[in-house]
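We keep the chain:
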Amino acid sequence: RTPGQAAGGAAAAAAAAAMGPGKNQKQFEIPQNKVGLVLGKNSATLNAIKAYSKAQCFIEQRSPDDDKATVFVVGSDREIAKCKQTVLAVVDGSMSVSTLFTLAGVPLP
């Protein structure tokens, strides 16, 4: 397991722990077969998403539907929206990982 990747309720618990004043939590689903793409090697892609959106982001791989993984996001409404938009753009291919790293200001792994 890599940071940001959780099993059996751990992502929900981590998201709850990240809550604070002015923070909200949202969740959405991505295809299970795209989890590796969103995480990246050693969670590099997920960390770039966090750096770019300024939101905390956790992926729960074990969900009732084995075809879906749940993404938990904690932050301001704006941070959550930016994180969700970025994750979905990486998933659907409309944002390349290299573009994400450039926008996040982090070096490619």
User: Anything to note?
Assistant: The CA atoms of residues 13 and 70 lie 13 Å apart. The radius of gyration is 13 Å. Confidence is low (pLDDT under 50) at residues 1-7. DSSP finds five helices and four strands in the chain.
